[in-house]
Amino acid sequence: MLPFIGQMERTSSLKPCMEIALRREVRQRREYLYRKAQEDRLRTIEEKKQKLKGALEENRLLPTEVRKDALELQKLLEYDDEGAEGVSSHMDDEYKWAGVEDPKILVTTSRDPSSRLKMFSKEIKLMFPGAQRMNRGNHEMNALVGACKANNVTDLVIIHETRGNPDALVVCHLPFGPTAYFTLYNVVMRHDVPDIGTMSEAYPHLIFNNFSSRLGTRVSNILKHLFPVPKEDSRRVITFSNQEDFISFRHHTYKKTDHKNVVLTEVGPRFEMKLYMIKLGTLENESTADVEWRHHAYTHTSKKRRFLSVQ
């Protein structure tokens, strides 16, 4: 009885500390969402001001969306400073330690994974230098995210499957978000390629191709901050190439044969990704988090509409 009573006393003494930590996290989350809302409002005003300025300079009709507030916007234009740059944003809060500290990645899977998904999670884990992989087991999402926050994990990567084939990738940035959801296509695992050799664990150089829109920049920021800053002598290259909103992932090492020629060797895995949602929150509060962007397949005005690049 005595050890059990002592354990109850220790547990009861921890409750006030846990409540304080929970209140602090809720407050920090509320402050982050407030800054994000303020930034969205200021961005909307700035876009209207630029449209008004362009219409006045080119001596053409005002756009319909700025006619109602044209006089107020014109007064604001008088006080604009052309040299004002570097205004902080919510992205500065999300990735404020990027480049200063190496990211700490945890890779896991959905519950009851197949052997094929387990192998793929090992390959994904090797992609990120210093990452850790954990068997999901029966851990609930709240407990999983809470443990990641307690251990200063910067990003939680979860892989899902359908009938043994990996088909979804979730990247959750901690502690406040965002959370990006990707669909996977045409997955070719390293285990499926004979005699592929070992994978280098050097910090890779990153190549992002055709991420020219604002959403494309947002996606490239989410992906690039999964990797630490590489060394100059690193011979490992990871490529994210966007074509018609499908992101092709390729992984190579290179070797110089002489002063002119370079030999590329693909080390895998390879797959295509398609973004279908970004939420301003983490996985334990995804039901209440605001949706920053969502792909609606049946509401396109045109089948050729693109989101990650400027058309």
Give the biggest sheet: 11 strands, mixed
Distance between the termini: 72 Å
CATH top-level class of the largest domain: Alpha Beta
- Reported by name, the CATH topology of the largest domain is Rossmann fold
Count of helix runs? 7
Q: Write the element-wise H/E pattern from the N-terminal end onward.
A: HHHHEHEHEEEEHEEEEE
By CATH, the architecture of the largest domain is named 3-Layer(aba) Sandwich
Total beta strand runs: 11
Give the % helix: 25-40%
Q: Based on Cα principal axes, name the global outline.
A: globular
Query: What structural class do you assign from the helix and strand content?
Result: alpha+beta
Residue fraction in strands:
25-35%
- The count of domains is 2
- Kindly provide the radius of gyration, computed on alpha-carbon positions and rounded to a whole number of angstroms: 24 Å
The CATH homologous superfamily of the largest domain:
Brix domain
